[in-house]
Amino acid sequence: MAAVIYHREYARYDFGADHPFTPARLAILTDLLASLGNPIDAVEPPLATREEILTVHDEAYVAAVEALDRQDGSSDAMAYGLGTPDNPIFPGMDLAARWLVGGTLHGARTIAEGKHNRVLQLGGGLHHAARAKAAGFCLYNDLAVAIQDFVRRGWYVAYLDIDLHHGDGVQSLFYESDHVLTVSLHESGYYLYPGTGHIHELGSGSGRGMKINIPLEPFTEEEDYLEAFDAVVPQALAWFSPSVLVVQAGADGHFADPMGDLALTTRTYHALYERILNLAARHTEGRVLFTLGGGYSSAVVPRVWAMLYLTLMGLPLPERLPEDWMAKWAHALGPRMPLTLHDPDPPFPPFEGKDERRRRNRNTVSRLLDSVSRYWY
Amino acid sequence: MLVREIMKSPVTTIPPDVSLVEACKLLQALNIRHLPVTESGRLVGVLTDRDVRFATSTLCPSPHAATDSVRCAMSTSVLTADPGDPIEEAARVMRAHKIGCLPVVEGNLLVGIITDMDLLDAILRLAGIYDSTGRLEVSLSDVPGELARLTSFLGQRNVNIRSILTYPTGQGSIRTVLRVDTNQTPPLADALREAHFAVLWPMQKPWLR
User: Fold this and answer.
1) Are residues B173 and B83 located together in one domain of the fold?
2) Domain contains B96
3) What percentage of chain A has pLDDT greater than the value 70?
4) Residues of chain B positioned with their CB less than 8 A from the CB of A136
5) In chain A, which residues have their Cβ closer than 8 Å to the Cβ of B202?
């Protein structure tokens, strides 16, 4: 069983009608869970305070967000990554982002105070936000605020990022920290935003060897993805011996996601969730905090995250999707919507290049292990 | 990009009459490889870490003692740059002569130095990879106005371009790589294809083709 954290105010984090990071994703998900007979029984977190935001962000940046939020044009929006196609300015954005941070932080405290081992925050995962810059749909870094709260208590945190994109914000905020291991699997930055997350980014100072990146080739499929995961993540955790796992569970690595080029399926995600829970059982006495993250296909995201929810709650996965839910959200789910929770098998016809992708992915992993293992033991 | 924008200034220099051992200590302390040699403010040579090592090596046909002066090991025919030179000209000179640095002079005054590392930094800046950006690769016809059509397309969508690299493929097309200030490059690529641009990356998913 997991404690679930959710607040209706999360829906305020809304960049507008044509923006991909829409709160409709959450509405469709929570509605699916209810329709499956498992309405979420969530804890409502408190709003994060300004001081809590300042544990990882610069005061000047937060002040700029607040000023732009008030339509006060005196701040240089672009210098702070705001007013861009990715991060449009919207009224109430400071408060909206603080709700999401509040949820993830509350999840961390729930674990740190020993109330629950397993927590699912149904929101957040804003892993691109930097110390003084918004980026890639992310205003405040909820993950970093939560991690910082653990670190303040002397905990060792293993951050695992399975979003399509590199978890650059979290990595850079803890680049020199020896209390935080970050492991990010993502589509290679040679091709995809944000352009970072290469194997040579290993951390610095006493954090050297504690920042791990597994950049994968475009169109990488399940077998290669899980092979890379298994080759690196268990070893890294065994060495680092964390007190808790924090997982950014973005679902945009799915083959039908419109933002990128990985070719994962619902089965890959299910396998990942099982693996992560097993790793938590082995290394952190089951302590694990999951957040959501990227994921931009309405036909995919509710199915993958419903699977996350059901797996964490120890509930069985239904085969078919409820018809009432399908009918209600038909306009959003689109014509390619499967009738089942899992993707069809096979999910797509075979396509060429598998051998070369595998060669490059395996080479990436072996080069990574070669350079990082000298710091590990 | 001009030499003055990427040169290191002020420059650490050394007089010609100090010993090689002193020069070696200075190179190591500052973790640098090139020392301009000056006498009464005038550039008279360049001493590199390699000059020091070879001059004092037993492998040198006429080796010097570590206590010998910088003057015996330095190069005296020094190529220099002007602060207003374009960096590609500096790169061309360094490549043609296979040398690792150019002291930058204004009249008799040494005002800076550029090395091969500064040129690598310049390439990274030109490639726009210091910011978190998405990448677009488009093949443009080698005719006037095509790049303008591409950039105005992006401008209309409020997409900020952080860098553009273009090079001719030799087959009538210009390969153009842009770093753009958005992570929404796949939908952008679809829109570009609809506007009849030949987008090489992001490509359409192979299982949708």
Assistant:
1) no
2) yes
3) 100
4) 132, 183
5) 191-192, 261
